[in-house]
Amino acid sequence: MKNLLSNNENHPIYIIAEVGVNHNGSLELAFECIDQAILCGADAVKFQTFKSEKLVTKYAQKANYQTENTNSAESQLDMLKQLELSFEDFVLLKRYCEDKGIDFLSTPFDEESAEFLNSIHIDAFKVGSGDMNNIPFLQKLDSYGRPIILSTGMSNLDEIGESLQAFKKSEVLLLHCTSDYPAPLEDVNLLAMKTISTAFNKVTGYSDHTAGIEIAVAASALGARIIEKHFTLDRNLPGPDHKASLEPADFSKMVLAIRNVEQALGDGVKRCMPSEESTRAVARKSIVMATPKKTGQQLTRKDLVIKRPGTGIEPKYFDDLVGKQLLKDVHEDYLLSWDDVQ
């Protein structure tokens, strides 16, 4: 994760496969998600660590998207209990990620879970948008001094600023996002990512909840240094987040598209690129002779014409050639050089 804290555009965009709770409470499914995320080219796989009773009350209602994608009769608490992994499970998942060479991240949703993740030396905390204004919780996370990736869904600039005040020890990275699943395109407001970056001078990225891969790729082109995208093995599995996630085939396409965008962005220096050199010689034009002329004769405007190829004297020197004396006989369409005149 050493490049994650750098705003250096030469460092690759950091791509997070957000498994979240798409393991459906199964450790084996979680392992398989890690394996597939690696094959897709993700830099990190991220989970959600929580104790259900410490996250929601027994009266808490589900979000609309959760109701649509799960048993509408059950409470949010009942739903979360089915999606909960034990701390021991996360120890195994972190060790598995280390063995496989992919970064392990998780979002804690309560202080006990945060304390546990710190105890296993997680590299960075991801904070979901639901807790981005939970100042006591943010201060608790700051006490560990680990990097913080803070999602900013459902917030404005003032609220982001207030949240950042909670951090005295931790380096904070900000993710723009729209907290709907899937997020409607008209609410994505992708340019807000650049607003956030300018306002707070932080490493900034995008947590994508839209359907498909286009918006994540667009965010990469706009300067996102981190892309987070929900990841599932099968969008038809039961659970609240599968429908708003990418399956491995599409996640791979997203990663490839982002890497292609990175390559295409270049260094920003406008110049003739190596692949253009041969086209430049053919497509550009030079000053050539319109008629034959003899040695010693002076060139007039009527003697000169501009044609391809572009390997001779550039057209911008047309007026400089007028009045020059020829040092050799030349024929029609002869490509002039400076050695031909005095």
TrEMBL record:
Assigned EC number: 2.5.1.101
EC class: transferase
Record has Ribonucleoprotein as a keyword: no
GO molecular function, one term: transferase activity
Residue ranges constituting the AFP-like domain according to the UniProt record: 286-342
SMART domains the UniProt entry points to: SAF
PROSITE patterns the UniProt entry points to: AFP_LIKE
Keywords, comma-separated and alphabetical: Transferase
A Pfam entry, by short name: NeuB
InterPro entries according to UniProt: AFP_Neu5c_C_sf (IPR036732), Aldolase_TIM (IPR013785), NeuB/NeuA (IPR020007), PseI-like (IPR051690), PseI/NeuA/B-like_N (IPR013132), SAF (IPR013974), SAF_AFP_Neu5Ac (IPR006190), SAF_PseI/NeuA/NeuB (IPR057736)
Protein name: N,N'-diacetyllegionaminate synthase
Organism name: Paenibacillus peoriae
Upper taxonomic lineage: Bacteria, Bacillati, Bacillota, Bacilli, Bacillales
